[in-house]
């Protein structure tokens, strides 16, 4: 009810910019305002806040300009350090008990590349003794750092999400297509994120940094596109042979992001794969806003 009465701010942060919407309710029709702000260079590096005061000033200005003081906020963190794993746990555990159980298994039955993780899980199928789950792990200190800045700027963060999950939420809730094996290609100016979805659950993700500056340079952009299209094809094969053991293949590509040459990406991809490619050029807002629009569709928690 709080969302309907007071509206909610939704913010996606990358290493180079902050994109936002303000919605009066969690629907495409609830959009009140939107925009993006380029962050001062060096504010965020590899998803980590390097210059807190610079980020705080950017958010402060937005809060003052749009009168967001004490508004609820859901934000999406950079996907650079998320880990997605499929695990088995005892079937008798509740969700809360399952997270506690998974915590006890870190460093024993499986490992994470960072300490002190924030964990979330989704239940999958089960047999008589075990339940299959999807584990999402993210460095807790990164999330806390963002929450602290938002709170100091006057907002009330109530949840964090992943950018790729937000994009897929928009696709699923707006398009309602029943494609079981989808590869999301979220291509921004500074990074490419490939996430495979199986029956609407993220089962694999890979984050690749784009070091070169392609702004206004079509030749460099073409080189990067050709290089990463090869990688996309490798991931498509990896999904077929390793993740599904040859039993299924990617049957839909979703192409989104704020990369300046997204149309060239689509053309090059079309020449190398026979899989249907869906992008969002015809949306009311440009494709770059699909991430934050998907975030806005997340219900209050």
Task: Describe the structure in brief.
By secondary structure, the chain is α/β, with parallel strands linked by helices. It has helices at 2-6, 52-66, 95-105, 140-152, 163-175, 218-243, 262-272, 290-296; strands spanning 8-13, 17-23, 31-38, 44-45, 48-49, 72-77, 83-90, 117-126, 130-139, 156-162, 181-187, 191-198, 201-209, 252-256, 277-278.
Q: What is the topology, as strand order, of the major beta sheet? A: 3-2-1-6-10
Order of helices and strands: HEEEEEHEEHEEHEHEEEHEHEH
Poorly predicted tracts of residues: none
Strand content: 25-35%
Task: Give the N-to-C terminal Cα separation.
Answer: 11 Å
Mean pLDDT across all residues, rounded? 90
Shape: globular
Count up the helices: 8
Supply Rg. 19 Å
Helical residues, percent: 25-40%
């Amino acid at each position: 009810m709080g969302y309907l009465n007071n509206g909610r701010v939704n913010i996606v942060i990358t290493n180079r910019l902050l994109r936002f919407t303000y919605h009066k309710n969690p629907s495409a029709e609830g959009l009140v305002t939107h925009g993006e702000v380029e962050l001062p260079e060096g504010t965020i590096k590899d998803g980590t806040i390097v210059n807190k005061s610079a980020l705080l000033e950017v958010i402060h200005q937005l809060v003052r300009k749009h009168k967001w003081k004490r508004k609820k906020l859901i934000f999406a963190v950079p996907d650079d350090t998320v880990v997605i794993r499929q695990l088995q746990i005892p079937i008798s555990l509740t969700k809360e008990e399952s997270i506690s159980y998974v915590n006890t298994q870190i460093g024993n039955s499986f490992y994470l590349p960072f300490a002190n993780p924030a964990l979330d899980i989704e239940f999958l199928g089960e047999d008589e003794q075990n339940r299959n789950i999807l584990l999402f792990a993210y460095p807790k200190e990164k999330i806390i750092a963002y929450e602290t800045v938002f709170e100091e700027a006057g907002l009330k963060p109530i949840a964090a999400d992943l950018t790729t999950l937000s994009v897929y939420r928009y696709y699923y809730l707006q398009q309602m297509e029943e494609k079981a094996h989808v590869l999301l290609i979220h291509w921004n100016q500074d990074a490419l994120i490939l996430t495979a979805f199986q029956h609407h659950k993220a089962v694999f993700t890979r984050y690749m940094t784009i070091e070169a500056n392609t702004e206004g340079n079509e030749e460099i952009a073409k080189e990067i596109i050709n290089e990463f299209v090869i990688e996309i094809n490798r991931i498509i094969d990896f999904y077929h042979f390793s993740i599904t053991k040859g039993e299924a293949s990617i049957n839909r590509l979703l192409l989104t992001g704020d990369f300046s040459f997204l149309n060239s990406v689509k053309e090059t991809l079309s020449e190398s794969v026979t899989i249907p490619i869906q992008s969002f050029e015809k949306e009311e807002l440009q494709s770059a806003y699909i991430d934050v629009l998907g975030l806005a569709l997340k219900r209050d928690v």
